Amino acid sequence: MSLPKILLDIPLPDFLLETLEPHCEVLSWSLLDEPESAALASVRGIYTYGHDEIGGELLDRLPNLLVVSNFGVGVDHIDVEACASRGIAVGNTPGAVDGVTADMTMALLLAAARNVVTGDRFARSPGFTRYDPSELPGLEVHGSTLGIIGMGRIGKEVARRARGFDMRILYHNRNRDLESEETLAVEYSEFESLLREAHFVSLNVPLTEETEGLIAEPELRMMREDSVLINAARGPVVDSAALHTALTEGWIAGAALDVTEPEPLPRDHPLLELTNLVLTPHTGSATLRSRLRMGEMARDNLVAGLEERPLPNQVHK
Ligand code: 8YV
Fold first, then answer.
1. Second label for 227, Cα 20 to 30 Å away, from 21, 41, 133, 144?
2. Strands 200-203 and 187-188
3. Are 262 and 147 part of one and the same domain?
4. Are residues 36 and 151 in the same domain?
5. pLDDT < 50 stretches in the chain
6. Pocket of ligand 1, beta carbon within 6 A
7. Which of 93, 97, 234 to probe ligand 1 with, by most ligand atoms within 8 A of CB?
8. b/e burial code for range 277-288 (CB count within 10 A of at least 16 → b)
9. pLDDT for position 272
10. Atom 4 in ligand 1: which residue has the minimum CA distance?
11. Looking at the domain assignment, is residue 317 inside a domain?
12. Are residues 302 and 233 in the same domain?
């Protein structure tokens, strides 16, 4: 019996591809470049992690599609409603990336606060010939105030880590989270007060209509001049042009971004010139163990969908 066919949006590393091989035949995404390919009707599943838009127009070209399995938790690139109305199941990998993304949030926070990247460059440069106590003064992390926007699974993991750094922790969320207030000693704050008070503002929200452009000029102007913005969520949550102005005009002290809008930034983008910005290439969940966890969950969702069973982790609109 032949295996069901799926489309993969970007090449998967071999160790993940191998997990799919017993279950399906992988077809190239470039099949979609052909306007009228008969092979499109044979496609039963999509395995996505390249953040290509998966919307109604594309779905209409795949009349026998059963499942869209996302390698990752954020499904902002998938039109879940369009899938639901066509009876196509959508799966993601909740929980698989919480700890690693929170680790990355702290790495970005510490790197920006303590000039780790600038310091690394300087320490390797010809300019570093003698110790100078006035070199690269940073911001203190312990004893400072962290504002977490989005107290979901990742936000809570960030709070847990920040407690170990003796930070005061404010959070803002659509709903108050009394349990976290009790167990993690976090304080609920109105959005604007959090922005005005926090030394470090960490974005840990999914990208939705409500969070797109959440941090733009007015919000950046509310933040402290000695504050740092950290984004390990999704690029479009922050207005890149406003952030550039904020960083060049000193509205805030620095920023650390694992995600950007657009992503990647064009190589001549003005943000890339700034030394008070730390950037990583969307590697918040990039550990081997996390990739394996995500791969297992994405495969299980895919296989369940191909067999027309409920997905272990199904996204509902
Ligand atoms: C993924 C992520 O690596 O899970 C998410 O939402 O952003 C990352 O963990 C990325 O989405 C690649 O698919």
1. 133
2. unpaired
3. yes
4. no
5. none
6. 49, 71-74, 97, 284-285
7. 97
8. bbbbebebbeee
9. 98
10. 72
11. no
12. no
Q: In the prediction, which pLDDT does 170 show?
A: 98
Query: Is position 315 within any domain?
Result: no
Residue 66 domain-assigned (yes or no) = yes
* Protein residue with least CA distance to atom 10, ligand 1: 72
CATH of the domain at 49: 3.40.50.720
Residues 206-227 pLDDT 10s: 999 999 999 999 999 999 999 9
Into how many domains does the chain fold? 2
Q: How far is the CA of 251 from the centre of ligand 1 (A)?
A: 30
Q: How far is CA 5 from the centre of its chain?
A: 29
Give the position of tokens 């996204």: 315
- The pLDDT assigned to 52 comes to 78
Q: Would 188 be classed as within a structural domain?
A: yes
Residue having the nearest C-alpha atom to atom 3 of ligand 1:
285
Cβ proximity of 299 and 20 under 8 Å: yes
Task: Report the nearest-CA residue for atom 11 of ligand 1.
Answer: 72
pLDDT computed for residue 137 by the predictor: 97
Check whether residue 107 and residue 205 sit in a common domain. Answer: yes
Residues 68 and 194 in one domain: no
Same domain, 147 and 222: yes
Catalytic choice (212, 217, 263, 296): 263
Nearest-angstrom CA–CA distance, 162 and 241? 29
Q: Measure 282 CA to ligand 1 centroid, in angstroms.
A: 8
Active site residue 51: no
The pLDDT score that the predictor gives to residue 220 is: 99
Which positions ≥6 away from 169 have C-beta within 8 Å?
A: 145, 146, 147, 148, 159, 162, 163, 184, 185, 186, 187
| Catalytic residue check, 263 | yes
Task: Please tell me the distance between residue 291's alpha carbon and the centre of ligand 1 in angstroms.
Answer: 10
- Known catalytic membership, residue 282: yes
* Predicted pLDDT of residue 67: 98
Range of the domain at 299: 5-96+289-306
